[in-house]
Design a protein that fits this description.
alpha/beta, Glycerol-3-phosphate (1)-acyltransferase, seven-stranded mixed beta sheet, 13 helices, 11 strands, about 40% helix, globular
Amino acid sequence: MVSDFDLRVEILIYFAPADVPLVRRIQTAVVLQWVFSFLALAPICIILFFFLLYTRFWLISVLYAIWWYIDWDTPSRGGRKVPFLCRMRVWEYTRDYFPIKLVKTADLDPRKNYVLGFHPHGILVAGAFTNFCTEATGFSKLFPGLRSNLLMLPLWFRAPFFRDYIMSAGLVPSDKESASYLLQRKGGGNAVVIAVGGAPEALDAHPGDYTVHLANKKGFIKLAIEHGADLVPIYSFGENEVFDQLENPHGTWLRYIQERLQSIMGISLPLFHARGVFQYSFGLMPYRKPINTVVGRPIPVEKNKKPTAEELDVFHQRYMDELTHLFEEHKGNYGVPEDSHLLFQ
């Protein structure tokens, strides 16, 4: 005899059909691996490192610890990007799962260096990773001569084994030392990608929300001026649509706790959910919704080792204006309502 509860659960869970094409199953498996890597691989690597010390394989951790000591400064010195891994076909399955597209609006001179501001952060920055850490969307073909590096919280580069994994994709710590190292390379062609809103912006990553944490963000502006790197705004349409998040408006106890934890740990903890692997009702797999990452026009920047506050304000306002123009110009192409506009915080 089936209870009312069983009937209710059966109705609420929408299972994937059995005849899902193989290619879509592969896409799901690849994205599952990516989500797992983002959420769980770092702590697993830390546990593995210490676990091996108490087994007959202790030498692996000891040798790695020696290597780690020797290689300590590599993340802040350009990392160790492996082009072969970035071009693997596996990332094309990630691209096609959503799908993700990189849209070019202007040429970028490979003789110059650039600071690319990525907006919004979203939950797991799917657009930033796929577009700028892999070749799945053709970054090198759209912008020949440019090498991209995405900045990530320095915390993750302190995890053994995991640090080497993320460096292979071109990720480097999101501190001034790491970004400056790339931007002062001679010959140009370096594109530093910064999710300007950072971890706090992830707490505003709700579907239909166009909040951008930029009003008081001037560090990346100063970085660009100090190195004479042109500023390029990027807006990733659909970045906030691939996950749902528990409602956490400012002033609620949930938002207070999240912001307190973020200030202590440096990472935000959005309570997000979407679909599962074999069903569409709940889980941590992102929805299959398109992400269109639009790269705007470059803002020319003259090098000044000691920019004034007035100069920072001028370029900051110019950047905000250019990002607004980019959003308004392209929002109609990607399903954003005409009466929706960017909200700067």
